[in-house]
Amino acid sequence: METWFGEQYYLYIWIPGTALGCLAGLTGALAGVFAPRGRMRGLVYALCALIMGGSAVMLVAAIVAKLGGQPYGIWYGLGLPGCIGIFVMGFNFPVVRRVYANAEMRRLQARDG
Known about the structure:
The protein contains three helices and no strands. The chain has one domain (14-112). The radius of gyration is 18 Å and the shape is elongated. By secondary structure, it is mainly alpha-helical. The longest helix has 41 residues, at 72-112. The mean pLDDT is 92.
């Protein structure tokens, strides 16, 4: 079986994981700033879903690559960020939801007096 990428592109397999990591860092910064204030909930949730979806796609692609006999650099380069993304967002998304719920509760208590 031929590799998915030619020899000249084989060294660039780090790009999807790096892009996913940068997006996760941006999402964490946005959540840290806006979640305690109860703002931008839709954007933060959408970015979390995008990261989880992208991680799942990368993990499935890594499994297909491994089963298809692709070189180590291809399946590992897709599998590692896929696993990390699912693991990190899987643990942090409930925390973000809880912070948004607490902000909503504080807003309701302040309104009730």
